[in-house]
Amino acid sequence: MRLSELAERIGARLSGDGQVEVTAIASLGEAGAQEVSFISEPRYAKEALGCKAAALIIPEDFTGEVSSAKLFVADVNEAIEQVLTLFLPPADVPEVGVHATACVAASARLGEKVAVGPHVVISAQAAVADGCVISAGCYIGAQVELGRHCFLGPNVVINARCVLGNEVIIHANSTIGTDGFGYRQVEGRHCKIPHIGIVVIEDEVEIGANSCVDRAKFGKTVIGRGTKIDNLVQIAHNVQIGEHCIIVSQTGIAGSSRLGKNVILAGQCGVSDHVNIGDGVMAGAQSGILQDVESGLRIIGIPARPAKKALRELMLIQRLPEIVQEIKQLRKQIEDLGSAKNDS
């Protein structure tokens, strides 16, 4: 693609040779003569001086010196997304139709332009809406419902009666609708509690690889519209997650907890059972959330608490050796005063 065409596609103002051919986007340190790169923040301007890219995507108010052509844009991050889309390689997905090795029950219903890959199993009375892509090795349980234009990566499992909305993406090896982790102790034995509920995943949810969402004991485990879940995340039975949340890798949410809208849980957070987390809460990495959290709070630590309070506590902990020494000195002064009084 010529640089002039790229500029037009992303709505950039070009300063430089528009006839140069570009084929990809890369970082400042790795970009070559047929690639574009970018300066997202002023602190990267020095690094850009030695960049060999054909052109740099830069903010409209950028005034630094660079040797590459310039693509001035209002929003660098938005322009990067557009360029990535333009250079996106062809997707490795099955062709429309049912592969010869797939096993589709006679009572299953497939919509138009559905792609079913090798060794897929689609069970009785499952319904797959128009435009879905089901990659190799997937299992779709009985009475499962998939909305329009869903994508299931290789070896995804959707167990019986679970419901996916439209444009849901689930990456490789994730499992939806496994029994919740529920047992009752009887005379020292762990007796399994039946889980007869389902999982409902609403429109435009994306779930990463190797994540699990357990079915409810009864009722529904719900992942709200637009929520994005990273790899290696565990969502337990009867959890309710609101719209447009972000849940980062290695986070675990225990049973019957509720998240409001726009909640962000950073990596390795742990949420105890039956906890209510309000709208817009942001939890730092490795937070241990053991009790309800009010809307809008920023929390960190174990147990999780408001970030400002936790940071003050950390600062005090760092001063503990100094404080201990001061206490020792004060104690000695008091003892010396007592000794002097006794001598008099």
What class would the helix/strand composition place it in?
A: alpha/beta
User: Could you say what the CATH architecture of the largest domain is?
Assistant: 3 Solenoid
Spatial order of the strands forming the largest sheet: 6-9-12-15-18-23-26-29-32-35-37-38
Q: What is the CATH topology classification name of the largest domain?
A: UDP N-Acetylglucosamine Acyltransferase, domain 1
The number of helical elements comes to 5
Considering DSSP H and I runs of 4 or more, what fraction of the residues is helical?
10-25%
Beta-sheet strand percentage?
Answer: 25-35%
- CATH top level of the largest domain? Mainly Beta
Q: Note the quaternary state here.
A: single chain
Radius of gyration: 28 Å
Indicate the overall shape.
Answer: flat
**pLDDT averaged residue by residue:** 95
CATH superfamily of the largest domain: Hexapeptide repeat proteins
Roughly how many Å apart are the termini?
96 Å
Number of domains: 2
Q: Report the biggest beta sheet as strand number plus sense, adding barrel if it closes.
A: 12 strands, mixed
- Unreliable spans are none
What is the number of beta strands?
A: 38
